[in-house]
Amino acid sequence: MSLLSIQNMDVSIGQYSVLHGVTFDVPEGGVFVLLGRNGAGKTTTLRAIMGLWQPSPGSVSFRGEQIAGMHTSDIAKKGIAFVPENMGIFGGLTVAENMVLATANGKFDQTRLKRVYELFPALEQFWDKQAWSLSGGQKQMLAVARAIIEPRDLILIDEPTKGLAPSIIAAMGEAFREISAQTTILLVEQNFAFAKSLGRDMAVIDDGRVVHTGTMADFVADTELQNRLLSLSMEAG
Amino acid sequence: MGMLDRFGGVFWLPVILAIIAFVLIGAPSSWLTLTVAGLSMGLMIFLMASGLSLVFGLMDVLNFGHSAFVSFGAFVAASVLAYFGGWLGSDSILLNSLALVFAIAAAVVFGAALGWFFERVIVKPVYSDHLRQILITMGALIVAEQLILATWGGSPVNVPRPHFLEGAIIVGNSSLEVYRLFAFCLGALVYGGLFVLLNRTRMGLLIRAGVENREMVEALGFKIDRLFIGVFMLGSALAAMGGAMWAGYETIITPALGAEMMVIVFIVVIIGGLGSIQGTLLGAIVVALMQNYVGFLAPKLALASNMILMMVILLWRPYGLAPAVKIK
Amino acid sequence: MNGKITVKIIALSIWGLLLFSPFLFQDVRQIEVAARIAVFIVLVASYDLLIGYTGIVSFAHTMFFGFGAYGVAIAMKQGDSTWGYWMVGVLAGVLVSAIVAVLIGLLSLRVKAIFFAMITLAAASVALVLASQLSSFTGGEDGITYSVQSIFKPATKLLTDDEGKVLRIMDVRMNGKIAAYYFVFISCAVLFWAMLRIVASPLGTVLQAIRENEARAEGIGYRVVAYRTAVFVIAATAAALAGAVYATWLKYTGPDTTLSFAIMIDILLMVVIGGMGTMWGAVIGATLMVMAQYYLRDLMEVAANATEALPLLPDLLSPDRWLLWLGIIFILLVYFFPAGIAGTIIQRRAVK
């Protein structure tokens, strides 16, 4: 059974219908990559899974349980973490306070905290700094760190490489690889090189519909398919 | 701007205002009286405005009926004080204080209860609809004012003060009213309490985070609605407390009190910036000092001066002096 | 039948009644009611231009209404009661309104709607305080009483019969009062028609696009702030003109008739009851509210007397408490019929 199953998900925002019958399965373990051009509906998909937009009834099941229509906070408690496109950092709070809010009861599990420090040493260094003063890459690290400070089953990450320097992207990739050994990641990405290096399974969304699903290896091998689905929008990797 | 911010930035504004006023007024004794009056008034207005600011910051809800809490607080406190009239006149500080504590407590409890009702019945159905929100809370304000009129009548109500808060102490040539000093201290105490709540507790952390980014707080697994009703009740209770203290300050109150304070409270939150209690305190003190200084120098311009101040500050900083950080 | 047509028929019948009201209802009070309805239709329609068509909530509408009224009042008082001074007064009122509207608009329309509401509220209360404090100019709390153009004086004979007495048509005396009434009626009808044209023009379409989706309208390339400021100025000008007309009719201008917060609440009630964003709703809302103001109080008086023996009820039913009931009705309306009377009729019919 797959970890997360999206079946025929429609989403409307206001009077605009954005997603039409989106369907894909995220198996347990590894990184699942959602590709597609700007405005195709990738971010909307993640937000709908998280309950931040309303998905059509019965369209999202997590570990076999229907979560469409649940309150966002309840979806989070099921073990799904969310790293939004804007990172969702609380700038007026310190790094420590940001992290404390991500814990279930205000206390850190020391082993997990140590792991966060190992993955992202900068966070330990700036632990008591206000989050708005961090660099873009450090903010992204904080956003990911918040998602892994408690045990989770699935992390939704929206375009983590946007606007980051190549060296930081590489470090981020390293971190994701390590995280995905324990926790499934559903990654939305525009940077195909980055996505290719991490993804095990993948789907392509276009114009609010899933137009392709498969393994990343097959997709990478089929350049013709890549060109057809992505050439208009993405820098080929 | 960078330099300015490093040294406390806009928070020096009241000091600058006080220095300018000192030069213009000329007489140090009058200046001291006015400054103390301004500071105590500022803290009372802070109490009235803080809830409005937090509620807006957290949920994007602007309650135009907020001043109803102020009015109800004032009238409830006045009634309780009148009921304990005998205690107030006595020489026993204990009885005096008890009556005062009862009055303020009654206002606070009433404010919190009314806040609960307001949030559940009036505001909740129109969370995300600004237009209807403004209209409905405005309607609620009308109803609240009419209920006050029906309950307490239209004529001015006398507010007895506790004996030990009567009179003034003389410092040099200036006389400082005891009640004002009391209001200042109590207001400062509440500010301190709020500061600790917001900065040292988990609930406070959640409120601050929620003001910045409500969705992310929910995505971390917290129900913000529950938090919100708490904040709403807290804000209403504080407004009622401010109203209660204001009643003692004015000693005569009319049902028009709410509408009068609403304008000042709005100017305060606009100047201070919505969503942060530091900003609200700053706005309240700036507005109150301005009101007192200009009231002394050019009485007719007092309210207009605050309006002009608001315009200037908005031109300089469209979101007020010290708003909460919003990442959205 | 199409809902829009139903609404239009209702509104046009009201205009028709207003047209003939001096002949239909022959007493002093009715003609006051009719004139007030006409003026408030314009005031409410201009407010609808803001709230209904652009989603701007302003509490400064009475301020502009007041500018227009005080313009006429001060000109007539300081100068004399000729058309020349009248024009000066009207122009001054309109000009001040337009300038203040531009200032407020540019300053604050770029911030959130809710900020705008607060700022206009603050501005309006300052105007109210200034009007009562600058008493040498505005007459303070007492306001200004003045005489108007001679053609509007009740003693003026508009038409005379063979004997040189004032002519009666259908028992109505053709005197200055009639002239004044028809001056109010025609001015208001023209202003209302002009606003209908604005809503139907391309400008109206743009405004609705902005209201529906501001970000999108901005994306398409509309300069949202500029458009909003323009509408704010148009609405302010219309309100000022309505004020000038009302001042000419009343021969008195004071804080209570033009600037007070109570009138702002009246306008809000009228626009919501009538139906926001319909223009025609303004006619229905203004008519119902003005009628209620004049007649509901009488009714409540009766109810209060009838329940005298009961506790609390007479207090709540006293005519002084009529705003309490209006407030409750208002809240219920915003909950259950946010589209107002006109909007609800249009929707109901559209569904069928």
UniProtKB/TrEMBL annotation, chain A:
Tell me which domain of life the UniProt entry assigns to the organism this sequence originates from: Bacteria
Does RNA-binding count among this protein's keywords? Answer: no
- One biological process GO term for this chain? L-amino acid transport
What InterPro entries does UniProt report for this protein, alphabetically? AAA+_ATPase, ABC_transporter-like_ATP-bd, ABC_transporter-like_CS, BCAA_Transport_ATP-bd_LivF, P-loop_NTPase
Q: Which Gene3D superfamilies match?
A: P-loop containing nucleotide triphosphate hydrolases (3.40.50.300)
Q: Name one Pfam family in it.
A: ABC_tran
Whether ATP-binding counts among this entry's keywords is: yes
Q: Which UniProt keywords apply?
A: Amino-acid transport, ATP-binding, Nucleotide-binding, Transport
Q: Where is the ABC transporter domain?
A: 4-232
UniProt GO molecular function: ATP binding; ATP hydrolysis activity; branched-chain amino acid transmembrane transporter activity
Which PROSITE patterns does the annotation name? ABC_TRANSPORTER_1, ABC_TRANSPORTER_2
- CDD domains, alphabetized: ABC_TM1139_LivF_branched
Family statement drawn from the similarity comment of this UniProt entry: Belongs to the ABC transporter superfamily.
Q: Which PANTHER family match?
A: ABC TRANSPORTER ATP-BINDING PROTEIN (PTHR43820:SF2), HIGH-AFFINITY BRANCHED-CHAIN AMINO ACID TRANSPORT ATP-BINDING PROTEIN LIVF (PTHR43820)
Q: What is the designated name of this protein? A: ABC transporter related protein
Q: Which organism is it from?
A: Maritimibacter alkaliphilus HTCC2654
UniProtKB/TrEMBL annotation, chain C:
Chief subcellular location equals membrane
Q: Which organism is it from?
A: Maritimibacter alkaliphilus HTCC2654
The entry's cellular-component GO terms read: plasma membrane
Q: Which CDD domains match?
A: TM_PBP1_LivM_like (cd06581)
- Localized where? Cell membrane
Q: Which Pfam families match?
A: BPD_transp_2
What keywords would UniProt list here? Cell membrane, Membrane, Transmembrane, Transmembrane helix
Protein name as annotated: Branched-chain amino acid ABC transporter, permease protein
